[in-house]
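[scheduler] slot 2 assigned
[scheduler] job type: sequence-to-structure, two independent chains
[scheduler] chain ordering preserved from manifest
[runner] begin chain α
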Amino acid sequence: MPRRSGDACHRRQGGPEEGPGDHPEGSRRVSAARRRIVETLEYPELDAAVVWSLVADPDRLAEWFPLRPVGDRRTVEPGVGTTFRVARWWRVPALGSRVVEVVGWRAGEAYRCRVDGMLGCVEFRVRVAPRPAGAGTSVTLEVRSAARTPLVGAVLRGAWRRRLRAALRRIPRVLGG
């Protein structure tokens, strides 16, 4: 019997550009609960390098996203293989923390990370792109979830969509834009 705790989540190592067809489990039953949520927001007044410095720094995660780093606070150079622990803002860190692993990285452009939780695996992708002719920056947040069941997946998708929109609206406030 296959392991249910991680087999739905473990993907081939690679860059953030991997698509849904790259999933090694292919058409397994668990992949039926996998869904993708994508939210994009453009910031005409913000520079891409400034936005990247915010969204790519694990120590600044709590400033714009509803998770906060916990535990060992040593500075780690971000990149593939980097791991750190996070907890939701309102949870006691010892009770509700999860390990985040960076599994894809293109410096200054995009990264992909994975969190394996009790209800399934969640994969986050963050892309920062400058707009043409210096017209600001576009930020895309994407969540792919491999929930244990379709019902759990549906509940999680609704919650994640709201969180992604709130996180995108928070970025210009954090950067003073």
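[runner] end chain α
[runner] begin chain β
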Amino acid sequence: MGRFLGGFVLPLLLLTVQLAIAMFFLYNSLGAAMITSVVGIMCVLVSVVLGTRRNNRFQSNVMKCQDSRMKATNEMLNYMRVIKFQAWEEHFNKRIPAFRSRSLAG
């Protein structure tokens, strides 16, 4: 338990101390403009976090569609003999492009 806390608490404590010292020096050199710049940095940080979450959701949806397409392609390749004997080629020829168009649409 000690190693776990030491691995996370110490860097957090050091980060807090470093930020406090940096803010002190910035305020001494820039004055009130430091507050404006910190607010601007926070706004950019929030927009980056929101953009990253949106991108991750989009990427997850694309990967799900690609997985279903790959599963259908794999199924077709594994059961090629049965598909040929049962004349199911048309069914799979329609099914796989449908998965592809769904994955490209996002």
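[runner] end chain β
[qc] chain β: The chain has a mean pLDDT of 84.
[scheduler] slot 2 released
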